[in-house]
Amino acid sequence: MGFGGVIFDYAVAVVRWIYGTIWRTIANKPKYKFTEYINGPENSDDWFDTIGHSFVNRVIGLIAIFSICWIIIKLGI
Prior knowledge:
By secondary structure, the protein is mainly alpha-helical. It has helices at about 5-25, 35-40, 45-75.
């Protein structure tokens, strides 16, 4: 992954961390550390925890970019 991919991954992880922290505070559930939103939980044997979190960050980021582009096109900005 290039430098831009790392920045993109961190930016989306920040958004996920903020949303997760607010949601877990309201729902009174245990909160995750920021590094878990990037790399997954520590010492986990689940394949999703090692690979899936960066994949989810990329998918959410792409959905956000396409949504913003669609809104810009529809509003004619």
